[in-house]
Amino acid sequence: MKGIFPIEKFSQMETPFYYYDTELLRETLRTINQEAGKHEGFVVHYAIKANANPKVLNVICQAGLGADCVSGGEIRASLNAGFPASRIVYAGVGKSDWEINLGLDKNIFCFNVESVAELEVINELATKRDRIAPICFRINPDVGAHTHAKITTGLAENKFGIAMRDMEAAIEEAAQMKNVKFMGLHFHIGSQILDMGDFAALCNRINDLQNELEKRHIKLEHINVGGGLGIDYQHPNRVPIPDFKAFFDTYARHLKLRPGQKLHFELGRAVVAQMGSLITRTLYIKQGTAKQFAIVDAGMTDLIRPALYQAYHKIENISSEEPKETYDVVGPICESSDVFAKAIDLNKTHRGDLLALRSAGAYGEIMASQYNCRKLPVGYITEDL
Ligand SMILES: *Cc1c(COP(=O)(O)O)cnc(C)c1O
């Protein structure tokens, strides 16, 4: 287990930092290409928001994935990393004019439109530039994913997407517009989903919608089902690569694609989470009255998921082989929620020991902040060391 980290090198480095195992990333990408490649018409995009480290993006881009963006900044980051504009999709409930204009100027593959108000603005801006904006409607399928409430996006009361009952009116409105081209539908039901039944439920909903639309002679060239595949946070060593076979096979089995139709995916977490660890140094061991604290130099500013979502990250002491003791692992930030784990077992920990917070490659570095005037953590890939 400890063999997976270059400890000698780590011990010379300033902490905290992110370490990205590019060998695992490449193997993950090979698995994705292999499993998606078994099915006609499947197209995979990487959701940039999970991790936009330029070196990581570069590896993902080289594997041939497209990019799923949720802001103009992400469109820029994707283009800089080498993703072709023709493989960029752009979603988001609140697209600013400059962001829409950027997408138009760069000729991105598709805007995933989340309201009729946005459709009107896109048509207006495209008219001014004498362009035709390719669009899909993001539909809220009212399918609940069995995941954390803050990362469920497909329920009716959610801010994302267009309600199913408003879908046909939106499509008809788009058909009247001269400067948008309607290409299909987009969905994204949530994140960290491990029950394939949730994805199957989405497929059934899409099948119904597609049947309804065909009765009205509306054809979809593209269906985009978003991302959401979860990872095993408990067992990063045993399950380093998510079950992409089960994921893509579920869609192949349940979604009734028409001939020539393309099925797009936008995977974020499942691509990058397991290859990343946050490496932090132990500053102090503090004996409380009923427990002991390992106070480390990383905090919620470096990895906010435990504070924000009560997320679990496996923590390992990669410097010690001594018998295990129980610790609360906490950061230095002046917030009570700056706790990485409570009552976990670590090899006996001393000042100076390096801890690895595992499965931190997704929604880690990218969500870092400078609260308390802290430095942003640096992200290193294997080749940097
Ligand atoms: C966040 C997001 C994704 C990626 O979600 P993961 O759970 O990381 O796979 C895909 N599509 C859209 C529209 C998103 O907002």
* Rounded average pLDDT: 95
Beta-strand share of residues:
15-25%
Whole-Å distance between the termini?
19 Å
The largest β sheet comes out as: 8 strands, mixed
Bound small molecules, deduplicated: pyridoxal-5'-phosphate
Give the overall shape. Answer: elongated
Q: Helix- and strand-based class?
A: alpha/beta
- Poorly predicted segments: none
Count of beta strands: 17
Brief write-up:
With 385 residues, the chain is α/β, with parallel strands linked by helices. The protein has helices at residues 7-11, 22-37, 54-62, 72-81, 97-106, 116-128, 167-176, 196-215, 244-254, 269-272, 305-309, and strands at 17-20, 42-47, 66-69, 88-90, 110-113, 133-140, 162-163, 180-186, 222-224, 262-267, 276-287, 292-296, 315-317, 324-330, 339-347, 354-357, 378-381.
Explain what the structure shows:
The protein is of the alpha/beta class and 385 residues long. Helices cover 29% and strands 24% of the residues. The protein has helices at residues 7-11, 22-37, 54-62, 72-81, 97-106, 116-128, 167-176, 196-215, 244-254, 269-272, 305-309, and strands at residues 17-20, 42-47, 66-69, 88-90, 110-113, 133-140, 162-163, 180-186, 222-224, 262-267, 276-287, 292-296, 315-317, 324-330, 339-347, 354-357, 378-381. Strands 1, 11, 12, 13, 14, 15, 16 and 17 form an 8-stranded mixed beta sheet that branches. Strands 2-3-4-5-6-8-9-10 form an 8-stranded parallel barrel, surrounded by 5 helices. Helix 5 (97-106) crosses helix 6. The chain is elongated, with a radius of gyration of 22 Å. The protein starts with 6 loop residues before the first helix and ends with a strand. The mean pLDDT is 95. The structure holds pyridoxal-5'-phosphate. Pyridoxal-5'-phosphate is lined by residues 47, 49-50, 68, 70, 91, 188, 191, 226-229, 266-270.
